[in-house]
Amino acid sequence: MDWWGWVILALVVVAVLTVSAVLVQRRRRRGGVIGLSGQGRLGDPGRSDPR
């Protein structure tokens, strides 16, 4: 792999870390960390909450 291959790989890793950090922060701000396993079953807590 040439040097540009490592550059692309580094950019992808940084992008994945940034997206995951944003998602965790957004979930935390919404009111409580549900846990990764229960996230899919419960759906979006912001939508189901009548408040």
Main beta-sheet strand count, sense and barrel state: none
Q: What average pLDDT do the residues reach?
A: 73
The ordered H/E elements are HHH
Q: Number of helix segments? A: 3
- What percent of residues are in strands? under 5%
Number of beta-strand segments: 0
Quote the distance from N terminus to C terminus.
53 Å
Helix content estimate: over 70%
**Gross morphology:** rod-shaped
Radius of gyration from the alpha-carbon trace, in angstroms: 16 Å
Spans of at least 5 consecutive residues with low confidence: none
Structural class computed from helices and strand pairing: mainly alpha
Structure, explained:
- The N and C termini lie far apart (53 Å).
- Helices cover 78% and strands 0% of the residues.
- The mean pLDDT is 73.
- The protein has 51 residues and is mostly helical.
